[in-house]
Amino acid sequence: MKLLFITLLLSIFSIVSTRAQDFEYGRITGNDVDLKNTSLDSNANAMVIREFGTASVQFDNATGKTFIVFDYHARIKLFNKQGFDHGNIVIPLNIYRDGEDELKELKATTINFVNGQLIKTELDKKKVFTEKKNKYVSLTKFTMPNLMEGSIIEYSYKVNLPSIFNFKTWEFQSDIPKLHSEYIAYIPAIYNYNTSLRGAQKLTKQDAKINKDCLSIAGTKIDCSKMTYIMTNVPALIEEDYMTAPTNFRSAIYYELSDYVMLNGGRKSITKTWKDVDYELTSDKSFGAQMKRKDVFKDIMPEILGKETDDLNKAKAIYTYIGKNIKMNGFIGFYSENNIKTALEKHSGNTGDINLALIAALSAANLDAEAVILSTRANGVVNNLYPVISDFNYVVAKVNIGDNSYLLDATQPLLPFGLLPLHCINGNGRVINLKKPSYWYDLKASQKESTKYILDAELTTEGKLKGKLTTYSLGYSALKKRQRIVAANSADEYVEKLDEQMPGISILKHSIENIDSLDYPLIEKYEIEMKVFDNLNADQSYFNPFFIDRISKNPFNLNERTYPVDMGAASEERITMMIKLPANISVVDKPKDMSMGLSDNGGKYLASTGMQDNSFIFNQMLQFNKPIYSSDDYLSLKEFYSRIIQSQKTDIVFKKTK
């Protein structure tokens, strides 16, 4: 979003900075030295004793530029060697089109209490280095010196931020607990920011005061709001399986510029309506202009479509063509990096190049195609109350054929038509149409993750299990396996690696069907041999039938989870075994049949065993019917998995009858 006019407005402003009261650098107390992790979290390897930050807008008379000055100061206790990772400090700095964040006044000290004395070791500035993560972000990195168990590390720095649109975010919560986190924001009265506090933790203290004469506009003194936010005894945010971006749930305060007062007393709105955003996007040379580039495909469209006349088959042909002819260059974004013509010629582009090209090609075939901008799971949720374009980082295509709509992402050629990659399944996307108003669209997985195993085998008198294992995979399950096959360079190498990962099972022969037929299930057929018993002649022998995708670890281990369990898609796994037994072997004990379900038809687990003629029959089904479960369902899910794990520890007992 372009804010050059704000810089021009502020060129006549000057900010008088008033520094808040920070805690004294390097002044360690006995309480700091004696601090134990039991004071807040007995499992913590490190803990923030205190952190303090301030942010204010300033104007540089020499350069004529406005910027935000952010000061940060932290003191952290490392309880053990596992906490040493928190002595590796990384400061991310953003790179913009017309500037970048500037790091200044960095200092860092390690303090150890040795033989009754405090020993301070200063950071050698020569050991601070910068790594360019990508063209948008650089990382300043350093490791605190002389780390020991019980070390206290302290560091502070200043950063000049050239963008004032998003006032500096402050994160009260991190992956280690904090005893005291304090942030002071100086907001000039001419600015109005939308402010939001995310996360489950509540502020301990919030205070607003007037900071007199902090701003001078053409000789007129303007006040600032001094906003103080304090949070104490903050628990760590523990990342666990099935969560989206931690920023969605980490307790933090966010700002976005809403409007500002002009010199004549009028008010200029920055927060736009979707009507404004629609116009900007459809007019943008890197977005809307690329959607309109039907001319790029005019000459090659007959080649792409061949003899296809049905609209759905046309769309599939175009989807396949784009996926094969433009490979992703590793960068994501919803704007075209160069333009779609260049991407097609070079066979390379970012996600915007690829999917905007897909939209233009679909339109060139007279199909109803739209763009859907979204935020990926790792990027966080979007604000549904008002447009925040910086929330979005990805674009996919939406093609409407008859009564059906299909969401398409051509950046991953192994995705079947109509299935988005899991990282795109994240709340709502905004549909951008060249001629109609934009609207929200629910991003859902069009297929569930489905796997079915069928084992038809025989237990030999030598104690070996021999037979045929057939696996049917659909949806995301098939996608993951196809990706592994491609990564292994061939099906044979994929099976070879699979064989190595299953030390108890030997794969004798194999065949894999529909590797390239993405609309059909991936079918794997294996002739396997498995050593079950060392001595089948013993009076009793034991065999655990839960050897296919056995659940050995509970993915949910917290006592409480304050954020939802987001699986992205519903899933189902079925296992069927038919094992023919030798004539002199019978089953004398087996796992109890089990049937349990989650509330509100959220899912179920079934397991049953039985005998038919001289064959042992085993069936199992694990089903999750919801893509997302609320935090209220967490303990039920934890118990659900715990009972499955206990059930799967039970063996079948065979007995020799003759």
From TrEMBL:
Coiled coil: none annotated. Residues 301-380 form the Transglutaminase-like domain. The keyword Signal applies. Residues 1-20 form the signal peptide. Keywords: Signal. Pfam families: DUF3857 (PF12969), Transglut_core (PF01841). InterPro entries: DUF3857, Papain-like_cys_pep_sf, Transglutaminase-like. The keyword Ribonucleoprotein does not apply. This is DUF3857 domain-containing protein. It comes from Pedobacter ginsengisoli.
